[in-house]
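pls design
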């Protein structure tokens, strides 16, 4: 099984509700210190599962954002707004002219 990256460990801890009160040294699970928590240190497998859940949620959020942007553009254009008008009213929704 591959070793988790620092980013994966952080995402897993955050997904499990450990938003603060911990420190990670050398990207090593064995060097994970917890304070401010009554719960025991989560297992590496729980962290791995939570990190995968966080990645899935991030991908779903990105997909939803892309779909919402596309729907917003379709709606604005259906109301007769040009891309130039949309760019002024909603910066970042379309490429600036």
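designed seq:
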């Amino acid at each position: 099984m591959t070793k988790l990256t620092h980013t994966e460990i952080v995402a897993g801890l955050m997904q499990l509700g450990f938003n603060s009160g911990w420190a990670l040294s050398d990207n090593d699970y064995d060097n994970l210190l917890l304070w401010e928590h009554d719960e025991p240190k989560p297992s590496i497998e729980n962290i791995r599962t939570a990190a995968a859940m966080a990645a899935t949620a991030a991908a779903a959020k990105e997909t939803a954002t892309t779909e919402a942007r596309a729907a917003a553009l379709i709606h604005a254009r259906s109301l007769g707004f040009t891309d130039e008008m949309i760019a002024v009213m909603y910066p970042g929704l379309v490429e600036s002219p």
